Every structure is written in C-alpha cells, then in structure tokens.
Amino acid sequence: MKYRTLGRSGLKVSALSMGTFSFGGVGDFAKVANHGVSEARRLVDVCLDGGINVIDTANMYSLGRSEEIVGEVLEGRRERVLISSKARMRIGEGPNDEGTSRYHLIRECERSLKRLRTDHIDIYFLHEWDGLTPIEETLSALDALMRQGKIRYIGCSNYSGWHVMKALGIAEAKNLPRFVTQQIHYTLEAREAEYELLPIAVDQGVGVMVWSPLAAGLLSGAFGRDLFPADSRQAAGWTEPPIRDRERLWNIVDVLNDIAHARGVSAAQVSIAWTLSRPGIASLVVGGTQESHFRDNIAALDLELTAEERERLNQVSRPPYLYPYWHQHNFARDRFRAGDWALHASFEDLGKV
Fold first, then answer.
1. From residue 170, how far is each of 104, 176, 254 by CA, in Å?
2. What are the tens digits of pLDDT across the range 102-124?
3. What is the count of structural domains for the chain?
4. Could you tell me if 157 and 205 lie in one domain?
5. pLDDT digits over 147-199, tens only?
6. Residue 133 within a domain
7. Of the residues 3, 61, 124, 325, which is catalytic?
8. 30-67 b/e (C-beta count within 10 Å ≥ 16 → b)
9. Which residue ranges does the record assign to the NADP-dependent oxidoreductase domain (predicted)?
10. What pTM value is reported for the model?
11. Is the same domain home to 61 and 186?
12. Is 61 a catalytic site residue?
C-alpha cells in the first residue's frame, strides 16, 4: 500500500480507502448491495490486510446501519484505521433533520459516534452544500466538536469551487477550522472537477478523496456497449452518477480495455491508476460487493501508466475547453502556477484555440 499526505495536514492516508456504501442494504441502498456483519467483516479484513487505513461511511448510508456495521466490525481494532463519516443529508421528517446547522451537526456527530462505537471520528465531512446555514455557524459547530475531541479533521463533499473558497476564506478570517480535504466525484468519464476543484486542491492544499472512482462500476470492464450485467445496481434502477453521453463513455471503456489487455491487467486497474496520477489526489474511496473487487483494486497500486497510455486516455476523455480557460490558454500560460496547470496541462498539445 502507498500512503499520501491529506492536504496540508500531517495525516497519512492510504491511496485507496474502503467505501461502505453497501453495508446495511436499507431502502434504496439495497440496489447496491446488502452486506450484513459477516460479509462486511470479510471485506474489511481484505482491506486491512491490503494496507488500507481509511474506512469511509456516512450517517445516511442505510439510515445509519452502515455506521453500526462498521462499529461492530472494527470492535477491538479501531486504532488500526481512520474512520471518515459525514452529515448534512436528510435523515428524518423534522425541519432540523438535514443541513449543516449547529443543532444538526452536533446531534448527528454524537449519534454517529454511538453507532460507530468510538469516541472520535477522524475525518468528518459536510456531505453536501447548505446554502441556508451561514458558513460561520457551520464551521463554529465543527470547531466545537474538534475542541471536544469528537472529530479530528474536517472536509467538504460535493461543493462547487466557490463554495469551497468561501468556506476557506471565512475559516481564515474568523480563525475557524479549515477543510483539509474534499470528497468529490472524479473519473475518466466525469472530469468536471478539473475546472475548479482540482486547481483548488493543488493551490489551497485541500486533499482530494474521490468517491465512486469507477463510476459505479461502469469503468471496471464489466460494462460495455453490449455488456450490461443483470445483477448490477444500474439494472436495479440506480442512476448515480448520471451518464449524459453514452457513446463517449463506451469510447473511454474501449481505450481502457485496450490498455488493460496490452498490460495484462483489468480495466478497473487502469482507471484507478489514471485517477491516482492526477494532481491533488490523496485517496480513492473504492467499494465492492466481493473480496475479488477489493483485491483487484489494491493491485492497481502496482500499475504505472506510460505517458503514451495517459495521453490516449486524456484524448478520449478530455472535457470541453470552457471559457475563461481557453482564453487563459491563449494569453496567460506564461504566468500559470501549479493550480492552473491542474486543468491546463491536459490541453498543452493545443495551439491557439
């Protein structure tokens, strides 16, 4: 296993984290999987044996059942791993059962601690933006939880670029805790994060953890133009992440399969290796329904793509060169810094556009 520093913190996280989205199987989460304690224990054992030191969950995964299973499975070995969890999503019918208010965050953190059977959460994420609660209130609540020793580090998830920068600016101005990480969706198929979120990661030192790095299995090699597993979550009606251009997706999969065949590895390993090579990436949160899925993902850490392979993948998946970026490409390249290159390096082969 390889370990990377999470943002500007001193915390070392494994290049792969274990996702527990499949634990519990309550409600719509049953479309993904329904791992009980015994199945979850086997999967956790595989991950720990492989050197993974982060287990990721959330209060709303199977309405808290995922956290309960994580807590039971880690009984007696809690100190071997870092736990990340989240709050913000709706978890009840009441008016304060969602959001990032002081009331909601403190209550949900304390509930999560009980379910996880631990006295602290190592990385606590705001699971989604809340435009109604002042950032000052949210960060102040997280500060209180940190001072009480209930959380160690904080992060955001699914924020836009201006949301992240607003929070970082207020944190600095008010001497409040600063995000050390952001958990985002980022894959060969979904590269929108390169416009703002990856540049912010590099420039501001906000380490990136990626959720669903194989696009819910679509980039694993198990799917293709004429290949759609009947037992997949998509077949069960799961629609996240949305795919807006199916032909582009299958073109990407074709190149993944070509490289995988030539290298004697899986398409999933090629996809993981590409994502881990991108700027600002600290860890990929991988899930799986079988032990073999996790073993295959862990094996990807031994794969280093060539410059030619990376360029093939870049060409087939490169996002549109939106304004103002094409204008910056034409007139500002001689004054770029590392954060700028997190986007613009993918377009360096272009002349004036």
1. 20, 8, 45
2. 999 999 999 999 999 999 999 99
3. 2
4. yes
5. 999 999 999 999 999 999 999 999 999 999 999 999 999 999 999 999 999 99
6. yes
7. 61
8. ebbbbbeeebbeebbebbbebebbbbbbbbbbbebbbb
9. 16-316
10. 0.95
11. yes
12. yes
